[in-house]
Write a structure and sequence with these properties.
Membrane topology: Multi-pass membrane protein
InterPro entries: AAA+_ATPase, ABC2_TM, ABC_transporter-like_ATP-bd, ABCG_dom, ABCG_transporters, P-loop_NTPase
Keywords: ATP-binding, Membrane, Nucleotide-binding, Transmembrane, Transmembrane helix, Transport
Radius of gyration: 31 Å
CATH class of the largest domain: Alpha Beta
Largest sheet: 6 strands, mixed
Number of strands: 9
Structural class: alpha/beta
GO molecular function, one term: ATP binding
CATH superfamily of the largest domain: P-loop containing nucleotide triphosphate hydrolases
Strand content: 5-15%
Number of helices: 19
Subcellular location: Membrane
Bound molecules: adenosine-5'-triphosphate
CATH topology of the largest domain: Rossmann fold
Order of helices and strands: EEEHEHEHHHEHEHEEHHHHHHHHHHHH
Distance between the termini: 33 Å
Amino acid sequence: MNKTHSEEYINNSNLLDFTFKNLKYSIQTSKGTQEIIKGVDGIFPNSQVTAILGSSGAGKTTLLNILSKRIANSKKSQLEGEVLVNGKPYTADTFSTFANYVMQDDLLTETMTVRECLQFAVNLKNKGAKTNKNEIVNDVITQLKLEKCQNTQIGGQFVKGISGGERKRTSIGFELICDPQSLFLDEPTSGLDSFTAYILMDRLRNFAHKKNRTVVLTIHQPSADIWSMLDRIILMVDGKFIYQGEGGNSIQNYFSKQGFKCPVLTNPADYYMSIMDQEKKINQINCPIYYKNYDKLIKENVLSEIKFSSQVEFNPSTSQVPTYMQFYYIVKRTILIQTRSPILFKAKLGQVISLAIFLGLIYYQLPNGQDDPYNVVDVRNKNGFLFFLSTGAFLESMNAACLSIPIERQVFLREENSKLYKIFPYYFAKLFVDLIADFIIPIIFCAIAYWMIGLRNDISAFLFFVLVMIVLQFTGIAAGYFEGCLFKDPNLAFGVAQLIAMPFFPFSGYYKNSGDLASWISWVQYLSPFNYAYQAFVRNEYEETYFIPNPIQSENIEFTKWEAVGYLALMFLGYLILGFYFLYRSKKNLQ
Ligand SMILES: Nc1ncnc2c1ncn2[C@@H]1O[C@H](COP(=O)(O)OP(=O)(O)OP(=O)(O)O)[C@@H](O)[C@H]1O
């Protein structure tokens, strides 16, 4: 170790040393307590690539999760020990201000191309000129050998996309552009061919050395080339360290002296992995020797490295473009996603036009009562349509919105965690795009259905009708956001959304006259968005009518049309605030 003396850190507030002492982690299982991390001390120094190696189940990911504060004490798990960065404790929240964690799953927006993903990150992280940003993106694309696939969509369930290796490189390129002060990566090279893995490691090493960043990663089977690139190595067997220190000759000398000499022409990584393999009996016998030698020969040195690690107060990286720019870039991306997604965009437009024509034909030119003012069947048909609209328009918007948030959830959490943007611009940029769509769609629908059905022949009545439709659909979106922010799983969010909406049907005023509801339950009608929409529609339609009695009285419509639409707008705001609150909370449950 060459950078452990505190003097070297004076005036350099960007160098981060992670240290941990006597770290223990155990979980309660049906068979009793299982110790996963068994009292380890260590340091992840700045400007170096530290690799944690060990056989499957050794505890590598757990260690990374503890250091990144994804694991905490709970009823089923106990965590002990001290974890510090530059001598100070930190929390999950503060961790994300100075470090990014790339998990094994790559979380990228499926319908964007590789270049668009990287461009999105660079736009949000850099305030510089467009040409500079393009240069950064070009540089990452070249260095990570992504030229061939730069204009291919990432892909996923609906779109065929780039390969797994390209995905991983894009994901890491995305984080490199975010330029965190430290980067944790769980198995960044798994699933990559040796050449691609080498390129990736080379880029990470440059990132650590040239920018003085702290890079920590877990790795399974590094090639000899990659092995020689690792600055610091931690070997882990069954929750304990058997080596911690420099790579290269240092590790080889250390094990040679103990009688574990790496044979000539053998990849040292393969050799050390083989002596750690707990499936082999001989290793089980040797294990106590490894631990004993570690305690005797390495532990003191590590404790001294910890003691002399950087204690400098550092400034968390806050490089973000202003909120209005975050809003702009997220709107731009959301429009891109929506116009590319065959399900969300084209289907919605086709659905609304065909539904308008279909309903227009079913209810074609309903009488207005002039020829037959006592015809209750005509009134019933018209009210049936108004009720159908009150529920259908709301549900249609709610269903799409409640799926969209959980589908994007992991990508959002990752990007928010990478400090690309704040929750506020994300939520409102997404909402803004959905509102535009649900502003246009009711206009198209009403322009077709209103006149085909022959509702009140008055332009101001038509405009009010459109207004109610828009506010109703907006309320549906906000309700969908609320439910989508409440649940991680899209299917669960969808199912619960239906369950919540269902009880409001009988309280819409159509199935059962609102004046007839029992007093103990009649309050529910004031929570029903269908009720307000139905009241606004009915009032608007029969303000001037030939029907006797006027359906406004027979349907027991208690609000004026502006009151009804006003209450609907309040519901919209209420759902929005709740949605925002739950999205904010979900950030805390990153795991
Ligand atoms: N929440 C948990 N509940 C039960 N067992 C757990 C939990 N977390 C970790 N473990 C167990 O702890 C051990 C270490 O897991 P960890 O994922 O850290 O290993 P690893 O070294 O990263 O393995 P791999 O290389 O296969 O990813 C494993 O045996 C795992 O099954």
